[in-house]
User: Which sequence fits this backbone?
């Protein structure tokens, strides 16, 4: 397992789907068609998705997605990348327990490669979604990369997505280089480092 620096910047905007151009909020859920850009930073890439509000428990915040709305939907976001650099995608996965199939299948793709993931909804419910954290690495082949998640569940109750992030694995965040002149200097640099880390998180 590779330890990821906690300060690494998430390259994905609105990865938890908490902000959207819906007023006042999605309620239980709203259905979004292909081409929709209602969810800030994201485009519905195929089919339809359901933008979930209070219908079930999100893994982070209060909103998440059913990648199957009335059919197999998808969502995508494009961001800047460095050719040849490896990136780690992490996301939280669950499934809509409303109807079959029991196993929900989805695909994540970026940089010309893809991976499939499944979620078993056995024993799960809207108040006990059983969210699992998943990760997948890809290497960028362009200066911009489109990350896409699509449902493969062939149902209107599909794989459920929340809390998406992408970080560059080979570019740890810049850290202050201590000058070994004095212990006091090292301490003050450490304080500065903590301060800037807090700013990046806020
Ligand atoms: Ca969320």
Assistant:
């Amino acid at each position: 397992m590779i330890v990821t620096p906690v300060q690494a910047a998430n390259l994905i905007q609105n990865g938890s789907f908490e902000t959207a151009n819906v007023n006042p909020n999605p309620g239980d859920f709203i259905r979004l068609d292909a081409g929709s850009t209602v969810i800030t930073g994201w485009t519905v890439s195929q089919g339809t998705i359901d933008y979930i509000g209070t219908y079930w428990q999100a893994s982070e915040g209060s909103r998440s997605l059913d990648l199957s709305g009335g059919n197999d939907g998808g969502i995508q976001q494009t961001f800047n990348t460095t050719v040849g650099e490896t990136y780690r995608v992490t996301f939280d996965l669950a499934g809509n327990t409303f109807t079959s199939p029991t196993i929900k299948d989805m695909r994540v793709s970026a940089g010309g490669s893809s991976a499939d993931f499944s979620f078993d909804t056995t024993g799960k419910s809207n108040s006990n979604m059983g969210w699992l954290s998943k990760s997948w690495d890809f290497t960028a082949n362009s200066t911009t990369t489109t990350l896409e998640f699509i449902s493969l569940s062939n149902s209107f109750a599909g794989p459920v997505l929340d809390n998406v992030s992408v970080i560059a694995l080979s570019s740890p965040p810049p850290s202050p280089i201590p000058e070994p002149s004095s212990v006091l200097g090292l301490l003050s640099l450490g304080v500065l480092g903590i301060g800037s880390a807090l700013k990046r998180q806020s």
Observations:
- The radius of gyration is 19 Å.
- Residues 29-171 form a domain with the Jelly Rolls fold (CATH 2.60.120.260).
- The chain has two domains: 29-171, 173-202.
- The first helix runs from residue 183 to 201.
